[in-house]
Amino acid sequence: MPEQRVSQEQVLDAALAIVRERGESALSARSVADRAGCSVQPIYSLFGDMQGLVEALYEHARTWVAGYNREHEGDGRNPFEANGLAHLRLAQTETNLFRFLYLSPHLQPDSFEDLFASVALDGVEECIAQMGDLDLDAARDLYLDMIIYTHGLAAMLANGAGFDVDKMRDRLNAASLAFLAKAR
């Protein structure tokens, strides 16, 4: 019987499913191979070792989240609000994936600029500038402040906080207005 070929994408999809369902600690060559329907050999030939798989998985998961964010673009009154709400929803509904991406050593920004470059979405700065009558530098600062604030709420949600959605939205709006006043 000929050897079954498994693609890098199939292995990454299998690993992503495991992380989403059971968390990063459930990742092993065997668990990924079982999920992908192959032996462990393709994992090592495709990625070298488990560290190589995890590094590729991190980027694969970021791509998945970018698609998730696109699916939820209309959930807010504007792209800025939709971005924040999607991050909070991800923390609540995809807790294991959220932890893998944002509460693990895999995200290691050395500066706030690195953090911004890693998580900011295209077009949101311009949206903030237009809505707040700000120049792009001020809009970028406001966006970064809200990324940090929103991520704090999201981290609490991922760890089991049961905040009321309306009160959380009120807090986000209040923080946004405070950061807008600071930016002006």
TrEMBL record:
Keyword Cell membrane: no
GO molecular function, one term: DNA binding
Gene3D superfamilies assigned to the protein according to its UniProt record, in alphabetical order: Tetracycline Repressor, domain 2
A family per Pfam: TetR_N
Residues annotated as domain HTH tetR-type: 5-65
Ranges annotated as DNA-binding: 28-47
Taxonomic superkingdom: Bacteria
Keywords of this entry: DNA-binding
Protein name, entry field: TetR/AcrR family transcriptional regulator
Organism: Gordonibacter massiliensis
